[in-house]
Write a structure and sequence with these properties.
- The complex is a heterodimer.
- By secondary structure, chain A is an alpha+beta fold.
- Chain A is built from 5 helices and 4 strands; from the N terminus they run αααββαββα.
- Chain A has a 4-stranded antiparallel beta sheet.
- Chain A starts with a helix and ends with a helix.
- Chain B is α+β, with helices and mostly antiparallel strands.
- Chain B is 56% helix and 23% strand.
- Chain B is built from 3 helices and 5 strands.
- In chain B, strands 1, 2, 3, 4 and 5 form a 5-stranded antiparallel beta sheet that branches.
- In chain B, strand 2 (112-113) and strand 3 (122-133) form a beta hairpin.
- The chains are: A alpha+beta, B alpha+beta.
- The interface between A and B is large, with 70 and 69 residues.
Chain lengths: 192, 186
Amino acid sequence: MNKSSIMHDLKPERPDLSPPLPAFLMVLPVLFYLSCVGAVGLGALFTLKTNQAQKDEQRELDSEQDVKRQIMALKQEQKIIDDTHAKAREVEAWMHSTEPLMDVVCAVINSVKKTHTLSSLRLSRTADKPEHIEMRIEINNGGNQQKEDTVQALVKQGYQTFRDDLIAPNKNDKDGAVTYTATLVKAASSEE
Amino acid sequence: MNAKHLASLLLFIVVLLLFQLTIMLNKRWTTAMEATRDAEDRHGAARKEQTDTSNALEKVRRETAARRKYLEMWRQKFEQSGTEISAKNEFTRMLKRFPTLVQFVTNTSGAVENKDMGFVNRRITSSVKLEGDAEKTIQLLASIERELSTSRISMLEIRKGQRGNDVELDLAVEFPLLAVAEPEKK
């Protein structure tokens, strides 16, 4: 291929009126052909790659959304479990505070000897500290000995007494009437 | 400048435009690739979060299983006596089962709030003063603690009664009330 065929192949045959272009401009049509081929080839390649990348991105976004929905569902389930657990703890706390008093009543009544009598037994507990049972016993006769027997019976049932007090109207009469007050707490080992 | 020069210039401009177009398409591809990588990273992070959340949930499930089972065991009992009326009725029904015990005063207080509780959030106290056979009285106490298992005896006082084996009993029993569920908005 000679110089003139490269330079003039895009134009029709006509008389050459103007002077020819400098020789280095011969590179222009070559550059143009290469640009056309390159632009088409690379353009197609880049467009395909771009489309592929966009599809990949969309797929990743969809997957991310799916995962986020699953995370939301998991968190929702966790919230339900946490709420249920909170309710369960309240129920457990309440049930823990309903420890039967019959053990105490039976222990006190059975501890009274036939020769002794009780005139009153009072048990109470507060909502703030239901594990502390306030006890007051009025012993008609039997005095200090009966009080000791009753405390022993309560210890056997797993209760400990504290803040206890014994009031005897007649201090000279050991077997006389006494009023015993104490706070009972279930010993930890007996709760298991 | 003659026509040949102009044509050359135009041709050069076209070559430049084609080059720019190719560069632009390449940039578009690069940007799309970066966006894909970002999306992949976010997806990976989300998957990690999902795994962490799933593990945490499994741990919570395992750790709370016993208590949740405990709640299921007791829920029905709590719901049975979970309102003021039903609690009061249960207590009255229990007292009626011991007709030989003479009741003097029965009273039910208004609901009191349970501190730091949202589910078992209130309680009422039913109290009674009665007199009768000591054995029946003890049976009544045992029945209350056994059958009204969610109730709590907050106070009891047993005193010697008027006749031989009779005793007087002052009794106060607390019943748990459940939080009222909010009606669903339509």
